[in-house]
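User: Here's a structure from my thesis project, written as structure tokens. My advisor, Dr. K., wants to see whether a designed sequence matches the one we expressed. Can you design one independently, without my sequence as a hint?
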């Protein structure tokens, strides 16, 4: 039993639904759980995501393991396997198949405790969960699921087949204030938020409405829990951000980018398509070329860290001294 009611699948039914090649096993073999390699038992299906786990594969007691073609022979030496080009993606589809069998699909319609403004539009195939708020002029697309306590602000648009987890806030005011005589004058946030199709947003993530233009989240974007997206940010298609990422106002993130947990992208910067930011990195300049970027100070014991930090403060003066020595050598 993986989650709610008891679920079991036959290996033959899995490959019929998802493709792949079942080898070394019987179609009528029943699996009752999806499990990691190291803990899988005779009634479980597992997967091998990387060849470095080959030792765990050999020792696994799983009824069947999902593997890439390159790992076919080691897998067959152990027992039944499903061979597919992308085992991790195949595993993801197996979890979806499992959830379908559990019968835990969201209930369509609006929960009695939710508040939906009469000027909002909620597609009949959408699900609006307990204690949600959908404000005036907002639009919730087909097949979209709002889990409990989601707020969609006025005039914000959520596309089709999106999932917004508990506590998500779409369309709060962006952080905009103008200084005057030691005080802050509020800049009214007159834009909205536009979210494309097939977007998933983790619990307690906030996406602020734009000041003058809309904040835009394009199709297929995935945001983890506790992500903060500032006003007028644009995130390109199929980009993904891990927990506690912060993107400051008016930054533009390209398509197919990834941002590791706790990283920060400063405002008004641009990241090209296929830029990948390591966890805890602070992005302080625009990145115009695809690639992996890292900008974090490695952890160390505190005494050594303080010495290294003090040395970093002297790098500029050391550079100037080296340049002066080089010029003196050339002149000699």
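Assistant: Designed independently from the structure alone:
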């Amino acid at each position: 039993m993986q989650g709610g009611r008891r679920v079991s699948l036959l290996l033959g039914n899995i490959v019929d639904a998802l493709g792949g090649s079942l080898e070394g096993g019987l179609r009528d073999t029943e699996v009752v759980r999806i499990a990691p390699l190291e803990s899988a038992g005779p009634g479980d299906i597992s997967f091998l995501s990387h060849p470095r786990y080959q030792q765990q594969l050999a020792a696994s007691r799983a009824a069947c393991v999902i593997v890439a073609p390159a790992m076919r022979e080691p897998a067959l030496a152990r027992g039944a396997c499903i061979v597919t080009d992308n085992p991790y993606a195949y595993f993801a589809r197996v979890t979806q198949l499992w959830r379908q069998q559990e019968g835990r699909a969201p209930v369509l319609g609006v929960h009695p405790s939710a508040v939906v403004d009469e000027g909002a539009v909620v597609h009949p195939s959408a699900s609006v969960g307990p204690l949600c708020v959908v404000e005036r002029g907002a639009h919730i697309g087909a097949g979209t699921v709002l889990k409990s306590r989601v707020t969609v602000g006025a005039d914000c648009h959520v596309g089709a087949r999106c999932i917004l987890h508990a506590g998500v806030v779409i369309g709060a005011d962006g952080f905009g204030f103008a200084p005057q005589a030691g005080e802050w004058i509020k800049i009214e946030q007159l834009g909205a938020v536009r979210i494309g199709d097939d977007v998933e947003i983790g619990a307690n993530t906030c996406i602020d409405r734009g000041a003058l233009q809309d904040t835009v989240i394009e199709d297929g974007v995935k945001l983890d829990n506790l992500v903060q997206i500032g006003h007028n940010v644009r995130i390109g298609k199929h980009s993904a951000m891990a927990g506690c990422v912060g993107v400051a106002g008016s930054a533009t993130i390209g398509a197919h980018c990834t941002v590791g947990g706790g990283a920060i992208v400063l405002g008004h910067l641009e990241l090209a398509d296929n830029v990948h930011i390591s966890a805890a990195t602070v992005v302080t300049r625009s990145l115009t070329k695809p690639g992996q970027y890292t900008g974090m100070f490695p952890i160390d014991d505190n005494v050594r860290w303080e010495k290294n930090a003090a040395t970093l403060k002297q790098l500029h003066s050391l550079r100037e001294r080296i340049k002066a020595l080089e010029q003196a050598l050339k002149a000699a």
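When you compare it with your expressed construct, this may help: Helices lie at 11-18, 54-59, 72-78, 87-102, 302-313, 315-331.
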